[in-house]
Automatic annotation (TrEMBL):
Name of the protein this chain belongs to: dGTPase
One BP term from GO: dGTP catabolic process
The organism's place on the tree of life at top rank: Bacteria
Segments of this protein annotated with the region Disordered: 181-210
PANTHER family according to UniProt: DEOXYGUANOSINETRIPHOSPHATE TRIPHOSPHOHYDROLASE, DEOXYNUCLEOSIDE TRIPHOSPHATE TRIPHOSPHOHYDROLASE
SUPFAM superfamilies noted in UniProt: HD-domain/PDEase-like
CDD domains linked to this entry: HDc (cd00077)
Pfam families: HD, HD_assoc
Keywords, comma-separated and alphabetical: Hydrolase
Lineage, highest ranks first: Bacteria, Bacillati, Actinomycetota, Actinomycetes, Micromonosporales
Biased composition (Pro residues): 189-200
Species of origin: Micromonospora coriariae
UniProt domain HD: residue ranges: 63-252
MF annotations from Gene Ontology: dGTPase activity
Length: 503
């Protein structure tokens, strides 16, 4: 018969090499320390959040500062929930909500992000699937999970960071593989969970977002085993749901803050879009999708498309009154508030930004609730209806007035070309028999690791191992290292020894 301590032991140590030992210790804090001490975590300081920090001279968030802020928000949410007696029994029933677990998972959630942020993720996925023949492709969340379980070495007896099952499960925003786990696969649900639908350019390729490659499937199963029977196989744990919600909050607030600081977000453009929709919302709601498409450049049309998209994708929560109220609240806080005073680098301006961020963070954290019957497109932990709509409008402002800019597109097309050229150059290097002994040591080790993971009868086993090793290698570079390595491989760099740091 199972003792009372055994379910907790599985939650703590399932799939971990650590002995069960003293269950009164706090292994989750040890997990947090292992993550923060990893070179993969330090590397995030040189990886793009939205704008590459390389050579920009701009004080903007990178993946490291973003991860720290997600961890801060995640811990605040967890502490609020665990301190509220209304949720205690439900949280215990669903598997628990430990503030140290969600903080550790938040710190680790972006470890696998490649150079140049989401652009790099899309480029590496396309190259992995179409050029290197890897059916799993590349996915930043799956790469993070691979790092903590496979490619970060901590001594001869341990592969990965040897994290507890709870923290590994809390990292799984998308607790499925691209194609075949769990069965039935969540992309077949109607509607499917967020991220489970295939990419539009390749509908047969499986989910566009997923939490682990097939090489880490056994580890995923071990991490999730303590939650079997408590939550569906495709649903996030409570702690993963907290981390995911915190990521959304940090993204919505801090990316807007960044582009206000650097002068990209302009009061006039944002005001014209929001206020045009408010004045003419009745007209916009009445026109057809085709008529709306022909008016794409008209102020107000873009946010009307957002309203319709929310109804299509998230009918479980989309509400026109809440949407209109969110537009008004964002207009008051952002257009009439933050953007009304151009950022000039003064102490007063910094204090103004800090108050804006603190006000929104508090508003969102205080609106968090827990449900025992979430929508397929939601988790157990979620924002209130009003605040959920506000997050969508803030993210819209970022997408519309930053990500859609032609000057950013120009920059990103160059970065995409750089990554493609780098992957091709590394592939040619691996195929050169005369250069085998002079391969970068890390690349050589990654080939051996990938080969060991594949079944001996795998078709083109060596080719697949080389392809996965190249993807792992490039994904572990900072933006600056990727640029420097391509410069060296193309003969443009004259600094022989200083290029060695990328090897």
């Amino acid at each position: 018969m199972e003792t009372a301590a055994e379910p907790r032991a599985r939650r703590l140590f399932g799939g971990s090499a650590r002995a069960l030992g003293d269950l009164t210790a706090n292994p989750f804090r040890a997990d947090r320390d292992r993550i923060v001490g990893s070179p993969f975590f330090a590397r995030l300081g040189g990886v793009t959040q939205v704008i590459s920090p390389v050579g920009s001279g701009l004080l903007v968030h990178n993946r490291l500062t973003h991860s720290l802020k997600v961890a801060q928000v995640a811990r605040a949410i967890a502490e609020r929930l665990t301190g509220d007696g209304r949720w205690r029994d439900l949280l215990d029933k669903l598997g628990g909500c430990d503030p140290d677990v969600v903080e550790a998972a938040a710190l680790a959630h972006d470890l696998g992000h490649p150079p140049f942020g989401h652009l790099g993720e899309r480029v590496l996925d396309r190259l992995a699937r179409q050029r290197l023949g890897l059916s799993d492709g590349f996915e930043g969340n799956a790469q993070s999970y691979r790092i903590v379980t496979s490619t970060e070495i901590r001594g001869a007896a341990t592969t990965g960071l040897d994290l507890t099952a709870a923290v590994r499960a809390a990292m799984l925003k998308y607790p499925w593989t691209r194609l075949d786990h769990p069965d039935p696969h969540p992309r077949l649900l109607n509607p499917p969970p967020r991220g489970a639908t295939p990419p539009p350019d390749d509908p047969e390729s499986g989910s566009s977002k997923f939490g682990a490659y097939r090489t880490e499937l056994d580890d995923l199963r071990q991490a999730r085993e303590p939650f079997a029977g408590r939550i569906p196989d495709w649903q996030q744990t409570v702690e993963a749901s907290v981390m995911d919600t915190a990521d959304d909050i940090a993204y919505a607030i801090h990316d807007v803050e960044d582009f206000y600081r650097v002068g990209v977000l302009q009061q006039g453009a944002v005001s014209a879009e929001l206020m045009a929709w408010q004045r003419e919302s009745g007209h916009f709601r009445a026109i057809t999708d085709a008529a709306l498409a022909t008016a794409a450049r008209r102020p107000g049309a873009a946010i009307e498309r957002l309203r319709r998209q929310l109804h299509r994708k998230d009918a479980w929560i989309a509400d026109d009154d809440a949407f209109a109220a969110a537009v008004e609240h964002v207009r008051e806080e952002l257009v009439d508030g933050l953007l009304a005073m151009p950022f000039d680098g003064s102490i007063e301006a910094e204090q103004y930004v800090a108050r804006f961020s603190a006000r929104w963070s508090t508003r969102f954290v205080d609106a968090i609730t827990v449900t025992d019957q979430p929508s397929v497109r939601s988790g157990y932990v979620l924002l209130g209806c009003a605040q959920w709509h506000e997050v969508q409008v803030l993210k819209f402002v970022h997408h519309r007035f930053v990500l859609a800019r032609p000057d950013l597109a120009l920059h990103q097309r160059g970065q995409a070309r750089l990554l493609g050229t780098l992957v091709e150059a590394l592939w040619e290097w691996l195929l050169d028999p005369e250069e085998e002994s002079r391969l970068p040591r890390r690349l050589h080790d990654l080939v051996e690791l990938a080969e060991a993971e594949l079944h001996p009868r795998t078709s083109d086993r060596i080719g697949r191992a080389r392809g996965r090793a190249i993807v792992d290698f490039v994904a572990q570079l900072t933006d600056g290292q990727a640029v420097a390595m391509l410069d060296a491989l193309s003969g443009r760099s004259g600094a022989l020894w200083t290029d060695a740091f990328v090897l």
